Amino acid sequence: MAEPAAELQKKLLRKHSHASVQPPGHKSSAATLEAPRGPEQTEYGQGFVQYMIAGSIAGMVEHMAMFPVDTLKTRMQMMAGSSRSSHSSLSRTFTSILKLEGPLSLYRGIGAMGLGAGPAHAVYFSVYEICKERLGGNRRGHHPLAHGAAGVVATVASDAVLTPMDVVKQRLQLLGNRYNGVKNCIERILREEGFRAFYASYRTTVIMNAPFTATHFSTYEAAKKGLKSVWPEKADEENLVVHVVAGGAAGALASAVTTPLDVVKTRLQCQIGIFQRHLTRSSKLWEL
């Protein structure tokens, strides 16, 4: 779920397209203003491929920058059942990982996320732009239903690309896992559990991301309006600080709303029955 970084990247691209200044005396004709765009052009004049690349880079940077926090989240969600007391706080989880495994363990599985996040976000932006155009979201005026529907379709498509690598990533994040890297994890899942194991949590992921997207964008727009009233000198439409503050607030609220489903997703992806023996053994180490 990379909506804050993706939205920020899109706003920055829009600002760049608006920065072009017409020469003195130039008058835009109605025909020029209403000229249809080719399929390779988006509503802000940016190339379609450019949006795909920008979205892909933004998604990869977001996921990989926050990867240590994601590792902590995965550990707490999976270990709570077998070692609740030792995972009662974020600080204790973090300290235990550093003490028992070292700081590099916080990045175990980051290769899988790198492989999945780039293509997934490229798919998200391409599908979003295509659907928004087909649904009339690029016409003049505000079209929230078209934008929302395009976002849902884009989320379903991007989750289909990201989910397999998310499964690999989360299994590698667990203490006492049975895998020796990304390649070994993929091979063993295919051999021992079959291809369907990569999509065991797909429906839950889609159900989770639908309210996440709705909560995120509604909060994001509300936060921007609030900043305009209390912080007018920093509330310009293209101001970086506004996007960071509004995006952070929106992401925090959306995550809080969807965390229960995120726990379900993690358990399905890691198949807690398969890992129960390893988790029980590992939990004893955390008690030391």
TrEMBL record:
Q: Topology versus the membrane, per the UniProt entry?
A: Multi-pass membrane protein
MF terms in GO: ferrous iron transmembrane transporter activity
Give the record's GO biological process terms.
iron import into the mitochondrion
Organism listed in the record: Adiantum capillus-veneris (Maidenhair fern)
Matching InterPro entries: MCP, MCP_dom_sf, MCP_transmembrane
- Pfam families, from UniProt? Mito_carr
Q: Where are the Solcar repeats?
A: 46-134, 142-226, 238-288
Which protein family is named in the record?
A: Belongs to the mitochondrial carrier (TC 2.A.29) family.
Annotated Gene Ontology cellular components are:
mitochondrial membrane
Q: Which domain of life is it from?
A: Eukaryota
Q: Which UniProt keywords apply?
A: Membrane, Mitochondrion, Repeat, Transmembrane, Transmembrane helix, Transport
Q: Where is this region: Disordered?
A: 14-39
Protein name (Swiss-Prot/TrEMBL): Uncharacterized protein
Localization recorded for this chain is: Mitochondrion membrane
Which PROSITE patterns does the annotation name? SOLCAR (PS50920)
